[in-house]
Amino acid sequence: MHHALRLEEILLNIFGHCYSPSPINRQHVPHDLATLARTCRTFKEPALDILWTELVNLSPLVRCVPEASHRVHPGYKVGQFLVFIVKHRYRCHIKWYSFTRPLQEAEWDTIRSYARRVRSIRHCMKELNWDSVKTLFNPPTPDPMFPNLRVLCWEFVFITEIFPLMHHLAIPSLASLEISVVFGDVPPLHSFFQLYFFGDLCPNIKTFRVRMLRPRVGFDECISGLVRRWRNLQDVYCSFVSLDSSTLLHLSRMPFLTNLSFTLNAVVVDHITSSASILLFSKLRNLEIYSQPLELVSRLLPHIQLPIIESLAVYIDSCPLKHILRSHLVAVQNSCARHSLVSMQLTQTPPTSSTDQRLERYLLTLDDLRPCMVFDQLRRLDINIASTVKVTDNDLLELASACPHLEYLLINEEWGWHTAGGITPDGLLQLLQRLGSLRHVCLAIDSRGYTNISPALELARIAGAIPRIPLIVNVADSLIHPDSVEALANFFAGVMQQHANSSSCY
After folding, report:
1. How far apart are alpha carbons 257 and 333 in whole angstroms?
2. How far apart are CA 250 and CA 23, in angstroms?
3. Crossing angle, helix 8-15 and helix 41-51, to 10 degrees?
4. Where are the alpha helices (DSSP H) in 348-444?
5. What is the DSSP letter of 485?
6. What is this structure's pTM?
7. Which 8-state DSSP code applies to residue 142?
8. Is residue 248 a contact partner of residue 274, using CB atoms and an 8 Å limit?
9. What DSSP designation does 257 have?
10. What is the rounded CA–CA span in Å between residue 196 and residue 499?
11. How many angstroms separate the Cα of 180 from the Cα of each of 49, 146, 152, 169, 370?
12. Nearest to 441 by CA among 391, 484, 373, 375
């Protein structure tokens, strides 16, 4: 054997290429690594370390003990707890594993020899019955079962019995914590605050993510208090959690906070705006804010400074009034650094019924969007609200001149333009020529009187003035006149010939 293959660093690098997550269910393909582990003593430890780095679920630990120690249950024969998960999450036939008797000391040693290699756990409850989960998290020794755990994703029905189990996974090495809450029964309020032990026992958390189907009273307060216990946060994803003002102040002091998402409520905005302090997020690059009315966000932004922000996304439930939209975009202009912002998104919850489609709309014009034009490095502009769009060819060309690096220009992709007009095909051609990096555009096409292709298209193709990059053109809710169908088809055929892997949506 070559002496280089005796170096663990080289073996870990080589064996790492055998670690292939499946794109469908992220389950690993362990056969090559298992073969390498059985090849020789030199390969055994590095191969096992890679093989056990990430567990999709805990069932491999049950399966690594002798056959007499576990059995397989059809998914439909397990208890109510797992039936709930099968019904709501895993609709295929699943095998469930469980212990049939108390484990002997040698069997515990076998399990621990593999558990110490685990760095990431994706699902704790999948493919394992409830009693076996409790067995694994209550080993006969006080030492943690997973002493080198770095990433924990816990998806569960929120029942009180789970908290003592989670306590066994709260170790100092944990750097990433994801809690996905599928509420079953309604737990008492004090149950939420038992999550605080993660703040006390896991001081090195850098990434924290919370997912939940529907809110519960007290949960926001619990998560806010938990976040305030960590000092090294880099990524905080609490999309449907209303973080309080003290927590936002705490996060603004994080020296390495890069990504942040949260839900905004009126109480937080009133508290922050009543104080004279400015929240400076010095390292924040990506910010997502969820709010029912846009007015809350427009009131908050003047009290926030984002010197190196790259992406700002705002999600709202109701259509803002015209003056509120303008004040919001002006607030974005004053709060965000003009040289660094590359993505701006404002999205209203898509319509769920024909009634929503008939909401009273105001005109969205270039004047409303003009504050966006100060961001000359903008690569994505996505405005999607319940408004009627009135933007002309010259308006779009002016926007393109101010933001020449746009790759995504999406206007009302879900809500539609609700106009008989729109952008003419010739105007779209000029837009493509001016925005050489454009990849995805959504706009309404004005086909009135368009019966013949303009010679400018052929001249642009011959001159190579149309960029050759993949392109998606979404024509939204354009009214295509029957007399213009053939000409439009020829126009888009001519444009798309210049692009590989391109498509137009009608």
Report:
1. 22
2. 37
3. 50
4. 354-357, 366-369, 393-402, 425-434
5. H
6. 0.84
7. S
8. no
9. -
10. 54
11. 27, 20, 11, 16, 40
12. 391
In angstroms, rounded to a whole number, what is the distance separating the alpha carbons of residues 62 and 99? Answer: 7
Structure tokens at 213: 């189907």
412, 443 Cβ separation under 8 angstroms:
no
Question: DSSP state, 484?
Answer: G
Burial of residue 392, with CB atoms counted within 10 A of its CB: 0-12 exposed, 13-18 middle, 19 or more buried: middle
Q: Is 412 left (phi over 0), alpha (psi -120 to 50) or beta?
A: left
DSSP secondary structure string for all residues of 151-162 = EEEEEEE--TTH
Kindly report the number of other CB atoms within 10 A of residue 341's CB atom. 25
Tell me if 441 sits within 8 A of 431, measured CB to CB: yes
Instruction: Give the closest residue to 20 by CA, choosing from 32, 11, 8.
Output: 32
pLDDT for the residue numbered 98: 83
What's the pLDDT score for residue 235? 97
Nearest CA-CA partner of 245 in 259, 226, 217, 264: 264
CB 145 within 8 A of CB 112: yes
Q: Residue 204 is encoded by which pair of tokens?
A: 């090195």
Identify whether the C-beta of residue 331 lies closer than 8 Å to the C-beta of residue 296.
no
Beta strands in 176-310 (DSSP E): 176-182, 207-212, 235-242, 259-263, 279-280, 286-291, 304-305
Whole-angstrom distance, CA of residue 207 vs CA of residue 237:
8
Please tell me the distance from the alpha carbon of residue 164 to that of residue 133, in angstroms, as a whole number.
12
Only one residue has tokens 């993949």, namely 470
Q: What is the pLDDT of residues 168-185, one digit of tens each?
A: 888 899 999 998 876 555
236-278 residue pLDDT tens: 999 889 999 999 999 999 999 999 999 999 999 999 999 878 9
DSSP letters, 77-97, are: GS-HHHHHHHHHT--S--EEE
What lies within 8 Å, CB to CB, of 101 at 6+ separation is 68, 69
Query: H-helix or E-strand containing 324?
Result: helix 322-335
b/e sequence 420-430, b meaning 16+ C-beta within 10 Å:
ebbbbbebbbb
Q: Hey, is 307 helix, strand or coil?
A: coil
Q: What are phi and psi of 211, to 5 degrees?
A: -125, 140
